[in-house]
């Protein structure tokens, strides 16, 4: 099984994507399954280090948290743009956050979360020291933002991946 | 009734996205630095892609979706290539 | 406009709201892009359009087309997923490129390279963990 379908999740998602792009019929199902299988083999050749999920049950919690946070910060940033940054009193700045997270896929997920959220931008990650450099749009309280990254996302990601 | 509401919403969306595209073009032209222009281009193609989706809704045809996909992929590759060029091409090497 | 008249109100109202929300947020993002002063501030503006701006329009499109076609039309969601995964890559690369250029010019407005290490000379993807910061790995 693992030789025939080396990346079951990837293949399943590809098949789903194929069916979403075309109409659902037996022919498309067979064709999509074929494409998904070949892509799985190609992936196995390309990237032997696969992400390990330790506790996948926490993923829906993470997704909900992220969707809600993105919605909230959308409103916050939109309001800041509309009011001209509290009439010129908004202060933005750089922020260094030391991370305990080391797993590459967990870091990739954290990068997507941080960048997709309006108001924070991921600039640089130093792999040796594990320090992340962020730019924050509305830097009222540095420790509050550091806390947001470290307790809200990092601990949950460590629970899922490490 | 619902036709009017939808027509109004679609009209608003088209005007808003058109304006957003115009502002992105303004950023591309004005700069001041190369990275600002690339960021403007990135915004411009996302806006164009959304405009195609809205136009598809207005005409009721699913074919605009394919065009939006193509714009998304080419725009992404273009921005990544430009950012990569800024990262290693110009100032130092 | 004939195909839009047949849509019932309970589909039309949420779709219209989502459309207005999505396009309004995208417009605000572009407005911020043109208006804000420094590059690092501007970096935040387009994420309005790529997060809930795109999500609103994509969800409205899914709602309307699913009704019009009489089957669930989910392909628009793929665009949402695609934008969600690609925007971090472009914005992160742009941010690093800008940081790199500012440091090379000796600008005082940006923080120096971390912990007295020499400035990163664009060796992205050379080592594993930094490679993770570039393209998101597929599951």
From TrEMBL, chain A:
Pfam families: MNHE
TM spans (from-to): 12-42
This protein's UniProt keywords: Cell membrane, Membrane, Transmembrane, Transmembrane helix
UniProt xrefs under InterPro entries: Cation_antiport_E
Membrane topology of this protein: Multi-pass membrane protein
Source organism superkingdom: Bacteria
Compartment(s): Cell membrane
Family the UniProt entry places it in: Belongs to the CPA3 antiporters (TC 2.A.63) subunit E family.
The protein's name in its UniProt record: Na+/H+ antiporter subunit E
UniProtKB/TrEMBL annotation, chain B:
Main location: membrane
Record bears the keyword Transmembrane: yes
Residues annotated as transmembrane: 6-26, 38-57, 63-87
Cellular location(s): Cell membrane
Pfam family, one: MrpF_PhaF
UniProt-listed InterPro entries: MrpF/PhaF-like
Keyword field: Cell membrane, Membrane, Transmembrane, Transmembrane helix, Transport
Topological type in the membrane: Multi-pass membrane protein
Entry annotated with the keyword Transmembrane: yes
Family membership noted in the UniProt record: Belongs to the CPA3 antiporters (TC 2.A.63) subunit F family.
NCBIfam families recorded: PRK06161.1
Name of the protein: K+/H+ antiporter subunit F
Species in which this protein is naturally found: Rubellimicrobium aerolatum
Phylogenetic placement of the source organism: Bacteria, Pseudomonadati, Pseudomonadota, Alphaproteobacteria, Rhodobacterales
Automatic annotation (TrEMBL), chain C:
InterPro entries referenced in this protein's UniProt entry, alphabetically: PhaG_MnhG_YufB
Keyword Glycoprotein: no
Compositional bias of kind Low complexity: 121-139
Keyword field: Membrane, Transmembrane, Transmembrane helix
Tagged with keyword Lipid biosynthesis: no
Region of interest (Disordered), ranges: 105-139
Transmembrane segments: 12-36, 48-68, 74-94
Protein name per Swiss-Prot or TrEMBL: Monovalent cation/H(+) antiporter subunit G
Native source species: Rubellimicrobium aerolatum
């Amino acid at each position: 099984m693992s030789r025939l379908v080396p990346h079951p999740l990837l293949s399943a998602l590809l098949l789903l994507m194929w069916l979403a792009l075309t109409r659902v019929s037996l022919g498309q199902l067979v064709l999509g399954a074929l494409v998904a299988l070949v892509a799985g083999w190609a992936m196995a050749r390309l990237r032997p280090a696969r992400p390990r999920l330790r506790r996948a049950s926490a993923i829906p919690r993470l997704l909900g948290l992220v969707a809600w946070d993105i919605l909230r910060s959308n409103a916050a940033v939109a309001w800041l743009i509309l009011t001209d940054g509290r009439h010129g009193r908004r202060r933005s700045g750089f922020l260094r956050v030391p991370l305990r997270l080391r797993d590459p896929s967990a870091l990739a997920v954290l990068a997507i979360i941080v960048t997709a959220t309006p108001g924070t931008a991921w600039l640089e990650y130093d792999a040796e020291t594990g320090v992340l450099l962020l730019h924050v749009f509305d830097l009222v309280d540095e420790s509050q933002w550091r806390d947001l990254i470290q307790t809200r996302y990092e601990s949950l990601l460590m629970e899922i991946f490490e | 009734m619902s036709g009017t509401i939808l027509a109004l919403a679609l009209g608003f969306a088209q005007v808003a996205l058109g304006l957003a595209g115009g502002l992105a073009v303004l950023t591309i032209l004005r700069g001041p630095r190369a990275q600002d222009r690339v960021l403007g281009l990135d915004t411009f193609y996302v806006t164009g892609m959304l405009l195609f989706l809205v136009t598809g809704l207005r005409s009721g045809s699913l074919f605009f979706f394919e065009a939006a996909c193509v714009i998304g992929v080419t725009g992404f590759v273009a921005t990544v290539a430009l950012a990569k060029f800024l990262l290693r091409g110009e100032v130092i090497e | 406009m004939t195909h839009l008249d047949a849509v019932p109100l309970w589909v039309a109202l949420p779709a219209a709201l989502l459309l207005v929300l999505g396009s309004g947020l995208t417009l605000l993002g572009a407005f911020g892009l043109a208006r804000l002063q420094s590059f690092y501030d501007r970096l935040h503006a387009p994420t309005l359009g790529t997060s809930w701006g795109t999500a609103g329009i994509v969800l409205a499109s899914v709602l309307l087309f699913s009704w019009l076609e009489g089957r669930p039309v989910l392909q628009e969601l793929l665009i949402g997923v695609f934008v969600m995964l690609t925007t971090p890559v472009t914005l992160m690369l742009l941010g690093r490129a800008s940081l790199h250029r500012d440091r090379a010019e000796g600008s005082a407005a940006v923080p120096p390279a971390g912990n007295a290490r020499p400035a990163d000379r664009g060796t992205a993807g050379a080592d594993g963990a930094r490679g993770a910061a570039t393209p998101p790995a597929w599951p």
